[in-house]
Design goal:
Elements lengths: L4 E6 L2 E6 L10 H16 L5 E6 L3 E3 L18 H17 L4 E5 L2 E3 L1 H8 L2 E5 L3 E3 L13 H9 L1 H10 L2 E3 H6 L5 E3 L4 H13 L3 H14 L4 H16 L2 H11 L10
Parallel strand pairs: 2-3, 3-5, 4-6, 5-7, 6-8, 7-10
Antiparallel strand pairs: 1-2, 8-9
Helix pairs in contact: 1-2, 4-5, 8-9
The protein binds ligand T3D.
Length: 261
Amino acid sequence: MPPPILVSAEAGVQTVTLNRPERLNAFNAEMHGLLREALERAGDDDSVRAVLLTGAGRGFCAGQDLSEREVRGDEAIDLSVTIETLYNPLVRRMRALPKPIVCAVNGVAAGAGANVALACDLVLAARSASFIQAFARIGLVPDTGGTWFLPRLAGRARALGLALLGDRLGAEDAERWGLIWKAVDDDKLMAEAGALAHGLAQGPTRAYGLIKRALEASATNTLDAQLDLERDLQREVGLGEDYREGVAAFLEKRKPAFKGR
Ligand code: T3D
């Protein structure tokens, strides 16, 4: 069997490809484990300065592999176990990763697969791709951060529509609704996402990490607390090499050569 996750690294970008195309890259336990390892490596390895996440084949990810366990019998299943041990740590790891994650949604993103995409930092989707909050279709509630991301990105009315109806939302509407950064032509998706990730890998990595942290904190902070946080983060990046290089490059009218420090 081919590995359910493919990982490669080039010029500061770690590309992670969900690789169970015959199941539209639905999550099983092995895939969760390998994705966790890949994200941990991306966090620990200083040579990795951006992550590019995509899917193999015609889908991005169809969420939990519904054939992984027997659900149809009489026995009730406690789903909090997989949520607590697999999906929640995944979202937390992605949001806490101090490096940008670009997501190239190459096809349908359903259930947890849709919300893994929404947990990324810059989401590009092929025009033919779609997002489906498939949970209610099988009697579940959105997980993997869906009930947090959706109202914040799209507003309550659209969040409820998507979650209650489980309808397919096309990439262009997802862009219009503010769920993703951009819908792009199918044949340009990987080139555009790759260029974005490689550009970010040349950027001020520390600042990017702190930008992620600041936006995350803003969800619960008061303006006052956020202003204090901005002061502290600006102090931190201001003490770093990249700020000095950025200003020098501006004044010398050249492209900055950020080292991510
Ligand atoms: O631990 C827990 O369970 C709690 C956590 C839950 C998190 C969740 O993600 S719950 C939501 C799970 N996902 C879904 O409910 C989506 C199920 N998939 C679909 O609704 C459809 O496949 C799609 C709308 C995504 C795509 O439809 P379509 O027509 O393009 O493709 P298809 O023919 O349905 O799927 C192609 C193959 O992939 C097919 O296999 P086959 O018949 O060719 O052998 C299908 O069974 C398989 N597949 C698709 N999604 C899943 C899957 N197999 C297992 N699990 C899946 N989620």
